[in-house]
Amino acid sequence: MILFNDQLIRREEARVDIEDRGYQFGDGIYEVVSVYEGKIFRLEEHLQRLSYCAGEIGIELPTSLEVLITNLYKLIEVNQLVNGQIYFQVTRGYAPRNHPFPAQPKPVLTGYVTRKPRPLELMKTGVKAITLDDIRWLRCDIKSLNLLGSVLAKQKAIEQGAFEALLHRNGKVTEGSSTNLFMIKDGKIQTHPLGNLILGGITRIVILELAGQKNIPVIEEPFSLKELYAADEVFVCSTTSEVMPIITIDGNPVGNGSVGPLTRKLQELMEEMLFAHQEK
Ligand code: PMP
């Protein structure tokens, strides 16, 4: 079963017009949330981001957030999802193809569950990354359906046997193609500040929170590729990748080439938080 606006229907029954603006223009936004033991992790923040993005592109959500929350939990229930994810998106809906917003837009919300296992093995061993020019647009803070820049970057990474492409713009490292990026140098954690050049990741919020609780110094300032190469530890994070250690960048080892102690610590703290969340 899938969510279609405010209805739960069979996937085969869902019908989206070929002139849906999401399909033709990428005119819409999306969210991916993780479900742990039947509970959606940090749903409030995900919905805040959805509302922010909807506001930034002038889309009115087809249902209230309260109704959406109820429906996401119904979706979990009917699909008997215990651990997995929900993908949901909102497009500006169908209208005869024309760039300007339609006079009376009818946004379309679709959502469905996926059951990707947590990448526990990769989180243990760490993964490879490459660096690439950030060719995306200048509103990366909007979780837009237009993902071509990210798709092309991720594909290049995969073709080179890497997990992620770390992007840089005007000499500064921004984020991964589908992750936020952190580096650690001399016990301090550094990440690009919020703004139009990165997506404000929910996992990023969690990591900053955990670091704060443990008095680990955090710097939210841009850093260069050179600084990235010289880092003691590097990791990327996202809803599905959680805290993912990067052990080589462009073929060069990060630090001593194995997962570093602070990255491990943050993984442990996040794990604890996921358990606490289950008990709520
Ligand atoms: N940056 C980009 C470009 C992303 O696509 C994502 C994941 N959608 C993230 C960061 C991480 O965001 P979150 O932690 O909310 O999954």
Summarize the structure.
The chain is 31% helix and 29% strand. It has helices at residues 21-25, 43-57, 65-78, 120-125, 148-159, 202-213, 225-229, 261-279; strands spanning 2-4, 7-9, 28-36, 39-40, 84-91, 108-114, 127-133, 164-169, 172-176, 180-185, 188-191, 218-220, 223-224, 233-238, 242-249, 252-253.
What would you say this structure looks like, in words?
There is one protein chain. With 280 residues, the chain is an alpha+beta fold. It folds into two domains: 2-114, D-amino Acid Aminotransferase, Chain A, domain 1 (2-Layer Sandwich); 120-279, D-amino Acid Aminotransferase, Chain A, domain 2, CATH 3.20.10.10. It has helices at 21-25, 43-57, 65-78, 120-125, 148-159, 202-213, 225-229, 261-279, and strands at 2-4, 7-9, 28-36, 39-40, 84-91, 108-114, 127-133, 164-169, 172-176, 180-185, 188-191, 218-220, 223-224, 233-238, 242-249, 252-253. The strands form two sheets. Strands 7, 8, 9, 10, 11, 12, 13, 14, 15 and 16 form a ten-stranded mixed β-sheet that branches. A six-stranded antiparallel β-sheet has the order 2-1-6-5-3-4. It is globular, with a radius of gyration of 19 Å. It starts with a strand and ends with a helix. The model has no long low-confidence stretch (mean pLDDT 97). The structure holds 4'-deoxy-4'-aminopyridoxal-5'-phosphate (PMP). 4'-deoxy-4'-aminopyridoxal-5'-phosphate (PMP) is lined by residues 32, 150, 175, 178-180, 199, 201-204, 238-239.
